[in-house]
Specification:
about 10% strand; alpha+beta; Tyr_kinase_AS; Transferase(Phosphotransferase), domain 1; protein serine/threonine kinase activity; Phosphorylase Kinase, domain 1; about 45% helix; 6-stranded antiparallel β-sheet; two-stranded antiparallel ribbon; ATP binding
Length: about 325
């Protein structure tokens, strides 16, 4: 309670503290507040997992879908365009909980709730905001996740129309800064690829679907992207063959995010997925596990991508600990 009182005093009377030479005390109060907020957040996560429920404050009402047909879909969700309070356009991601075996639903729900609570605490200009959750009354298990509707779609769709007027390196820098923020918040994205990087109305990037790789695991493996390429193309070798790295199972890490970021750079520059010349997923996996990586495309030998190629190769290092951090990549992009 003493710490709480100090926090409240600091927030109400910062100027008096400074007049009294209380800079150090003010800094202590700021750190104490962050610590208390982190403890409260962790408690909410644990409570949600224990009771297998989401806090009621996360649920949103007054949602209307524009159509009963989804505008997009993937392996684990259907996406609808809707409105909130009549005038706010939202993306409604309805999870396909009915497609998960009954014995896995409880564990799956706990993980979804955990991700939703974590997402709600994140605030960054290059990270997609989370409005809240919604239960679709037309579905028996119609749990939906709500976020702002992104006018320009994902970065690949945006570049297919606006590539000539866009500074590619600026977009990559925004992606890097958003991913660095997630890592500083102890969040591993787990599914970094162009389809999960959206463009907002100001033409800035918004990283989406972090943590949602758990859904693919609950569906029994990886899933296909809109281009038909499996998500394995973006996966680091230690995820494809954990035993080779003395791991009992695949565990997504900051380093595997960095590996995928290298492929995102390739996607953004070329408009094509990694190993775009290979259609068979098993062939791609074999190449990656044998240490092979994408080669600089012939049509990009004189492009800006060529100067960035050494950076991409560092991201693709076979040894996770040898890959650069996002902070180092940001410096390289400046």
């Amino acid at each position: 309670m003493k710490n709480t009182a100090q926090i409240n005093d600091c927030s109400r009377f910062p100027h008096s503290l400074l007049r009294q030479g209380g800079t150090i005390q003010l800094e202590f109060c700021t750190r104490a507040r962050v610590h208390v907020e982190a403890q409260i957040h962790q408690f909410v996560v644990q409570l949600s997992e224990s009771w297998n429920i989401l806090p009621s404050a996360l649920f949103i009402e007054d949602i209307r879908l524009g159509s009963t047909f989804p505008v997009a879909g993937g392996g684990f969700a259907d996406i609808f365009k809707g409105s909130w309070r009549g005038d706010v356009e939202v993306a409604v991601k309805r999870l396909r909980l009915h497609a998960i075996s009954i014995d896995k639903r409880s564990g799956f729900s706990k993980r979804v709730y955990r991700e939703a609570i974590i997402w709600r605490q994140l605030h960054h200009p290059y990270v997609l905001p989370f409005f809240g959750a919604y239960r679709d009354p037309s579905q028996e298990m119609g749990l939906c996740l709500l976020s702002p509707w992104m006018l320009y779609g994902n970065i690949l769709e945006y570049l297919s129309v606006h590539r000539k007027s866009v500074e590619i390196d600026q977009l990559l820098l925004q992606i890097a800064e958003g991913l660095e923020y997630l890592h500083k918040q102890n969040v591993v994205h787990g599914d970094m690829r162009g389809a999960n990087i959206l463009i907002d109305e100001t033409r800035c990037v918004r990283i989406a679907d972090f943590g949602l790789a758990i859904f693919a695991e609950s569906f029994g493996g990886t899933f296909k992207t809109s281009t038909g390429a499996g998500t394995t193309r973006w996966m680091a070798p230690e995820l494809l063959d954990p035993k080779k790295y003395d791991k009992d199972r695949a565990r997504r890490t900051y380093q595997s995010d960095v590996y995928a970021f290298g492929h995102v750079c390739l996607e953004v520059y070329t408009g094509r997925p990694p190993f775009s010349d290979i259609s068979a997923e098993p062939v791609v996996i074999t190449k990656v596990l044998n240490g092979e990586r994408p080669e600089l495309p012939l049509d990009c030998q004189l492009s800006p991508l060529a100067s960035r190629w050494p950076m991409l190769e560092q991201c693709w290092n076979t040894q996770p600990e040898q890959r650069p951090t996002m902070q180092e990549l940001i410096k390289a992009l400046y």
